[in-house]
């Protein structure tokens, strides 16, 4: 009996060991694979974009690279885990800024400065302010791979015409419009407040118009103590004035962006304005095509604030998305070849423009004019091109744990649970 | 007489699976809870620093408080409804069978589908409140005072059928002789429920309560989709706080500390429930058996 047990145990052990070995065998490809292994490219799942990305891979060589896509939130987690392991992709989609900086600091991202210096025509192909969005500590770590996404104030032209109103140029105009639309029973501004990043757009613009770009850049570069700047409280007080005036209606906290709440309110004329990233245009085009085709969707730059120090024309948002390369990847040279040859081809740029994107490529004014939605895309292009500063969304520009805390506090602020002073203090004093 | 038992080696696969997928992760979580790790590079050993942070973390305390309220409320809502529904549907009448089938529909839907369904139904601009005027002034998902109750309602709506099913099965096992005896003694309908059905279901109540409480302690997906912890932090219960810390803030070490706390609380909760209800001294309620 005893003996039999022993042999059985050994047999089971051998099976387990074999399984473990087999698992190891499949888990570690690529290490010694040499040049035949394809370049693995990670990007976000996006119906319009994925096809364009795949086409660029086909031009590079369908068997030389492989596209893998993920949903937005899971992507961030997967990337984080993968870059910390030997299973990292060779090329990965990212947002630049502080988000990318964490990976750069961990030594996971390849320096592309040399590549750009060696290919001056590649470097000059992109708008400098956008290329700099992935510049960290004076070195380049990313190549722009899609359209620019500045945050824009959208409005419903029909609702404005019925109220005899003009789109706001200044903050005082905006406050006046709040009264106008409230009197008409229309929510002045749609806000998808169940998602804090939509509220963040307001804070970003108001602080920038009042204090200029330096206050936030100081927070980003020198840590949370920067929130103690009195300009922060000043800006948040101005913003609180707008909230307390009822500009966002009384149920913004349960309106969502992903489920189309805020966008539909604007399209149906139940709200007059909506501050959103430039992707809102394509979003409206697919969700409420009649609204856009009737010419009722209007757009203006964020209003100026009298007495503020910010430069007019500064925009916030996502400069663009970038492809970055993984340091130490065995496919580094092939990956470099891919990003330096495929992201500026006429086919790629044209496909992006046709999809409604506004690529961060220099000198495409004429091309934009002859494409669909020219009025909107040329306007976005000029806005981004002429912006003295293109401030990356704060939640992408700060380290993840600070960003997450800031978003939570901001929601509390919009709900009226935190005063401007308490908001600034809580961010500055966080342990 | 010696009975030939199967070799203990047959238990090995089960032990291996349990070890790799349950015990090992728990050990790793305990280790991670003693470190600082942002998901990149190597975890840095911190000792008990995360634990002292947890003690002074007001956000963690608030989220645990919300979890406690959530557990109590979901239990208090689900137990009576599920018990009555289960006892009622145990009857063999045809109308009961048909209606029960309808009542049990939520059981067939995935949590994500249920959360999305209610999110859309309760949307103040496009959902039910648009057609039912009485609901218009209530911020089901937008009012910090109300949102947690909305979550309790949705979670209860989803799980009541499951617990009703437990009660239905148990109620059907109650011997008919007990009802016959009660009938002879002149017990009313209510009396039969109170003095026969309920005592016979006591152990099912314990089982279902433990499932409810441990389930509520770890409820996560419904809240993530329905409110994502909002508005503000009004529905950020402990598991969601753990998730936000770990997968939005990438503080894996501190998130693991919260995970260990939840593990300890969950185990304690079920042990205490068993102890208090003397689940171990289970015995038959019927004479002669």
TrEMBL record, chain B:
Residues 64-273 form the ABC transmembrane type-1 domain. Keywords: Cell membrane, Membrane, Transmembrane, Transmembrane helix, Transport. It is found in: Cell membrane. GO terms for biological process: transmembrane transport. Gene3D superfamilies: MetI-like. It is a multi-pass membrane protein. GO terms for cellular component: plasma membrane. This is ABC transporter.
């Amino acid at each position: 009996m005893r003996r039999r047990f022993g042999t059985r145990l050994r047999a089971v052990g051998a099976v387990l060991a074999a399984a473990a070995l087999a698992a190891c065998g499949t888990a570690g490809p690529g290490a010694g694979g040499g040049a035949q292994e394809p370049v693995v490219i990670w990007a976000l799942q996006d119906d319009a974009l994925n096809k364009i990305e795949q086409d660029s891979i086909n031009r590079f060589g369908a068997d030389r690279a492989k596209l893998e896509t993920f949903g937005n939130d899971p992507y961030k987690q997967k990337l984080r885990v993968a870059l910390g392991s030997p299973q990292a992709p060779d090329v990965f989609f990212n947002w630049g800024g502080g988000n990318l900086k964490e990976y750069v600091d961990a030594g996971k991202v390849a320096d592309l400065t040399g590549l750009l210096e060696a290919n001056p025509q590649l470097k000059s192909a992109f708008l400098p302010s956008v290329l700099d969005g992935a510049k960290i500590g004076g070195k380049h770590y990313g190549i722009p791979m899609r359209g620019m996404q500045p945050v824009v104030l959208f409005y419903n032209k029909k609702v404005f015409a019925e109220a005899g109103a003009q789109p706001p140029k200044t903050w005082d105009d905006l406050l006046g419009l709040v009264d106008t639309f409230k009197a008409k029973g229309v929510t002045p501004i749609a806000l998808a407040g169940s998602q804090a990043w939509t509220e963040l757009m307001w804070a970003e613009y108001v602080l920038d118009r009042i204090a200029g770009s330096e206050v936030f850049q100081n927070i980003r570069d020198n840590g949370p103590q920067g929130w103690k700047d009195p300009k922060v409280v000043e800006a948040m007080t101005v913003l609180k004035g707008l909230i307390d005036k009822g500009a966002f209606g009384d149920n913004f906290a349960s309106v969502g962006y992903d489920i189309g709440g805020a966008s539909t309110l604007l399209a149906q004329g139940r709200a007059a304005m909506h501050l959103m990233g430039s992707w809102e245009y394509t979003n409206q085009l697919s969700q409420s095509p009649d609204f856009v085709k009737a010419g009722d969707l209007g757009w203006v730059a964020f209003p100026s604030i009298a007495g503020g120090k910010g430069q007019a024309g500064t925009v916030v948002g996502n400069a663009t998305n970038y492809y970055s390369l993984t340091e130490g990847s065995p496919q580094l040279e092939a990956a470099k070849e891919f990003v330096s040859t495929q992201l500026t081809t006429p086919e790629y740029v044209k496909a992006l423009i046709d999809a409604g994107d506004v690529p961060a490529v220099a000198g495409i004014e004429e091309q934009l004019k002859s494409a669909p939605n020219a009025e909107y895309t040329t306007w976005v292009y000029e806005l981004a091109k002429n912006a003295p500063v293109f401030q990356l969304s704060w939640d992408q520009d700060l380290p993840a744990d600070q960003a997450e805390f800031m978003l939570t506090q901001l929601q509390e602020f919009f709900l009226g649970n935190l005063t401007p002073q308490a908001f600034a203090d809580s961010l500055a004093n966080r342990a | 007489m010696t009975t030939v038992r199967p070799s203990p080696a047959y238990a090995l696969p089960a032990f291996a699976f349990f070890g790799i997928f349950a015990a090992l992760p728990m050990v790793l979580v305990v280790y991670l809870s003693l470190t600082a790790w942002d998901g990149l590079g190597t975890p840095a050993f911190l000792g008990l620093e995360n634990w002292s942070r947890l003690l002074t973390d007001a956000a963690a305390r608030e989220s645990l408080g919300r979890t406690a309220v959530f557990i109590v409320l979901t239990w208090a809502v689900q137990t009576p409804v599920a018990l009555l529904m289960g006892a009622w549907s145990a009857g063999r009448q045809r109308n009961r069978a048909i209606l029960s089938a309808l009542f049990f529909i939520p059981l067939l839907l995935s949590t994500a589908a249920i959360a999305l369904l209610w999110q859309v139904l309760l949307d103040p601009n496009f959902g039910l409140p648009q057609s039912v005027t009485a609901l218009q002034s209530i911020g089901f998902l937008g009012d910090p005072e109300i949102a947690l109750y909305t979550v309790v309602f949705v979670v209860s709506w989803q799980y009541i059928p499951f617990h009703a099913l437990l009660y239905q099965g148990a109620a059907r096992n109650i011997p008919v002789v007990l009802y016959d005896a009660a009938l002879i003694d002149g017990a009313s309908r209510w009396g039969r429920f109170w003095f026969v059905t309920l005592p016979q279901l006591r152990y099912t109540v314990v089982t279902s309560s433990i499932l409810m409480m441990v389930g509520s302690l770890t409820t996560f997906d419904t809240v993530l989709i329905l409110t994502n912890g909002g508005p503000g932090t009004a529905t950020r219960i402990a598991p969601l706080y753990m998730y936000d810390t770990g997968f939005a803030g990438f503080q894996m070490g501190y998130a693991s500390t919260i995970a260990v706390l939840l593990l300890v609380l969950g185990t304690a909760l079920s042990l205490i429930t068993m102890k208090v209800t003397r689940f171990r001294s289970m015995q038959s309620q019927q004479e002669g058996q």
